């Protein structure tokens, strides 16, 4: 095997594929990236058996061939190479990587032990890559981090023809985003549960391409796979087992108080006042006719207060939130203004975006936040 390729093309493909490598694989072969050089093109693949990634790029293939090399080492080398033409060549049991005066020699791993990777399911729909990345990021932020509760570490995907609804929760907050996409199968409806971390990384990495094709295996399929493909990159991931908790009833339909706030100054205030506390200690918020007072700390501990101008409709209210979760929600709405809707000081609040202070709500994203108890 021998080929030459532009350094950027090699590094981009290797970085994508290396995302699916495990740090503690169940077999040595899974530490590797498969390089398959064919006529005019090179194909790369990597997997941890849960997630598999593939990429391909144009190259001047002098000698076709296939080899398995240590993946993370190849990724580090590819990134560090000078911006020159790279030559990759198999010599005996070693792979030589040269670019300019930089020369590396990599060992090879046994290709015979490498598993057959799953194929992408049939395409379910297509969505703009930037819109896809934004929507996934807005929701994944609310997913749980506790692997002992795997269902809560996922993003729930519900497809109803041309509408995709994404949802995630860690029991203390809930994020829901609706997006429109171009379904490729008429009257298609299904649900899926994907690891939030994998889902978010894939979506973010596929930005810059025009569209992302999404493939979801039907619920009757034995192999519960989801796939993403954009131009020269693709990924398949096994869906999580379990049932995502019903969440729609948690979104309040009737509110007693709403507060409209400019996000940037409010977020700055949350960060400042939260300096005297941590995420286990609540940030107290007192909403009155034209301002919200933020307060943290009590007694002999460090304390901080600050006020921010608001537009209040309804009765004044005092409530407390986890400051980290509140800041996450303010950043996730992605609009200059936010409306916080309340039904009571001991009930969840809903954050919704507004592009203008007096404008309408951006209804496609809602971030529900549970209140915390605080010592009065």
TrEMBL record:
CDD domains: beta_clamp
Record localization: Cytoplasm
Any one annotated GO CC term: cytoplasm
Signal peptide feature range: none
Annotated keywords: Cytoplasm, DNA replication, DNA-binding, DNA-directed DNA polymerase, Nucleotidyltransferase, Transferase
Domain DNA polymerase III beta sliding clamp N-terminal, residue spans: 1-118
Single annotated GO MF: DNA binding
InterPro entries tied to this protein: DNA_clamp_sf, DNA_polIII_beta, DNA_polIII_beta_C, DNA_polIII_beta_cen, DNA_polIII_beta_N
SUPFAM superfamilies documented for this protein: DNA clamp
Residues of the DNA polymerase III beta sliding clamp central domain: 127-245
Residues covered by the DNA polymerase III beta sliding clamp C-terminal domain: 249-358
Keyword field contains DNA-binding: yes
GO biological process: DNA strand elongation involved in DNA replication
Keyword Manganese: no
Family: Belongs to the beta sliding clamp family.
NCBIfam families per UniProt: dnan
Name assigned to this protein: Unannotated protein
Native source species: freshwater metagenome
Taxon lineage: unclassified sequences, metagenomes, ecological metagenomes
């Amino acid at each position: 095997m021998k080929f030459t390729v532009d350094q950027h093309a090699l590094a981009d493909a290797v970085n994508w594929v290396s995302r699916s490598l495990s740090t503690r694989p169940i077999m040595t072969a899974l530490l590797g990236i498969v390089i398959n050089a064919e006529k005019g093109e090179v194909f790369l693949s990597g997997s941890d058996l849960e997630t598999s990634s593939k990429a391909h790029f144009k190259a001047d293939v002098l000698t076709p061939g296939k080899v398995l090399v240590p993946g993370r080492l190849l990724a580090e080398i590819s990134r560090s190479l000078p911006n020159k033409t790279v030559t990759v060549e198999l010599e005996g049991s070693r792979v030589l990587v040269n670019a300019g005066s930089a020369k590396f020699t990599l060992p090879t791993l046994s290709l015979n032990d490498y598993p057959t990777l799953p194929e992408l399911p049939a395409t379910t729909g297509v969505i703009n890559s930037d819109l896809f990345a934004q929507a996934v990021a807005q929701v994944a932020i609310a997913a749980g981090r506790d692997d002992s509760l795997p269902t809560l570490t996922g993003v729930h995907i519900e497809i109803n023809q041309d509408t995709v609804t994404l949802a995630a929760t860690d029991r203390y907050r809930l994020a829901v985003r609706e997006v429109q996409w171009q379904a490729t199968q008429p009257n298609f409806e299904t649900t899926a549960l994907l690891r939030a971390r994998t889902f978010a990384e894939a979506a973010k990495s596929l930005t810059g391409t025009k569209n992302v094709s999404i493939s979801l295996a039907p619920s009757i399929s034995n192999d519960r796979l989801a796939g993403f493909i954009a131009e020269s990159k693709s990924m398949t991931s096994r869906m999580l087992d379990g049932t995502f908790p019903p969440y729609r009833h948690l979104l309040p339909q009737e509110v007693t108080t709403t507060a409209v706030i400019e996000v940037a100054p409010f977020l700055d205030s949350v960060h400042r006042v939260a300096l005297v506390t941590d995420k286990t200690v609540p940030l107290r918020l007192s909403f009155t006719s034209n301002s919200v007072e933020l307060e943290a700390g009590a007694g002999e501990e460090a304390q901080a207060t600050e006020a921010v101008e608001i537009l209040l409709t309804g009765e004044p209210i005092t409530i407390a939130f986890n400051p980290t979760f509140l800041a996450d929600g303010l950043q996730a709405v992605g609009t200059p203004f936010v409306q916080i809707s309340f039904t009571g000081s001991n009930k969840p609040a809903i954050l919704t975006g507004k592009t203008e202070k007096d404008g309408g709500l951006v209804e496609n994203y809602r971030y529900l936040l549970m209140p915390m108890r605080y010592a009065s």
